Amino acid sequence: MYSITDDISFPQSLFDLSDHLGLSRKEASYLSWSQLKSEVLDCYKINHIERLEALLNFVYQDKKFKQADDNYFTLASIDFGSMLGSRSGHALTLGLLVQTLAQVLDLKVQLHLLPVDVIFSFAYEGEVVYFSPLTGKELSMHEIHCLIRAEEGNLAPLQPEYLQPTSHDDLMLRLISDTKSSAMLQKKFEVAFHLCNLLIDWQGRHPHWIRERAFVAQQMGCISFASAELEILIEEEPDDPLLDLVKYRLHEMRHQHNVFH
């Protein structure tokens, strides 16, 4: 039975997740990755800056990876294997592509999770340069702050933690959360429900994920399961700040259940 483990490695863990969800086939994804991994070796330069420039040119110019346009918030965009095939994707999947290819070239590229967006950085001789995974273009601190303000409001500060390197666990957590959101937008509720289960099995019964699983179950017509989930949550989390909302939704579900029966 598939589960998220503490031994997360990229891109292997991405292939395993995609294959398990039925979003892309692991064999085909690994073949595409192996070809890129082989070809990127031609970008190896003695100078680190020139090597990074060659890598970015390889990804964005030679191979023409780019931001997904009309389908940015879809499973095809956030799924790593699908992105390798279409060469268009989400900021997170494109960032993961750059980071994993950089490792092949002995370059240390770090990903940074903003409240919604993702950026990556390269540090050399005490200087850190930030980039957009969507274009491979350098970002100034002002441009990064603009991204945050666009997400959080004009008064949102540029918090120092946004520019801290992100662990594999946190990257996988964001990937699963964003994949779940895309599945819900596309009404792929079975995929979303399965991702809720993976999150809860891996990270524990966080109230937010329990609420989301109940909502997804409700959309699937599993009213009894959803109601039972919220009843347990009310007992387990009496201090939940959203307790009144949970009770209201439970009342709605019970009414819905009575209508159906």
What does this structure look like?
With 261 residues, the protein is α+β, with helices and mostly antiparallel strands. It folds into 2 domains: 152 residues, Roll (C8orf32 fold), CATH 3.10.620; 93 residues, Tetratricopeptide repeat domain (Serine Threonine Protein Phosphatase 5, Tetratricopeptide repeat), CATH 1.25.40. 59% of the residues lie in helices and 9% in strands. Helix 10 packs antiparallel against helix 11 and helix 11 runs antiparallel to helix 12. The radius of gyration is 21 Å and the shape is globular. The two termini are 35 Å apart.
- Average pLDDT taken over every residue: 91
- What is the succession of H and E elements? HHHEHHEHEEEEHHHHHH
Strands ordered across the widest β-sheet: 3-4-5-6
CATH fold title of the largest domain: C8orf32 fold
Number of helices: 12
The tally of beta strands, per DSSP, is 6
The assigned CATH architecture of the largest domain is Roll
**Alpha-beta content class:** alpha+beta
Task: State the low-pLDDT regions, or none.
Answer: none
The biggest sheet amounts to: 4 strands, antiparallel
Number of domains: 2
- CATH level-1 class of the largest domain: Alpha Beta
Report the sheet-strand fraction.
5-15%
End-to-end Cα distance: 35 Å
Alpha-carbon Rg, integer? 21 Å
What percent of residues adopt helix (DSSP H or I)? 55-70%
Shape: globular
